[in-house]
Amino acid sequence: MRHPFDTTFCVETSGLVCGRDLATGHAHDRYNTAYFGVAPSVFHALCAHWQDVPRSSALEQYSFIDLGCGMGRAMLLAAAMPFRDVLGVELNPELAAMAQKNVQLWKAAGRARCGMRVLCGDATEFEFPDNPCVAFLFNPFGRTVLRRLLKNLGRVFANRPGQLDMLYVNHECESLFKQHGGFTPLWSGSIYKSPADEEADRKIIYNQPEGEYAPSEYESCSAYRWTGMAGLDARSPAVVRDGASKQRRA
Ligand SMILES: C[S@@+](CC[C@H](N)C(=O)[O-])C[C@H]1O[C@@H](n2cnc3c(N)ncnc32)[C@H](O)[C@@H]1O
Question: Would you state the pLDDT for residue 229?
Answer without folding.
Answer: 83
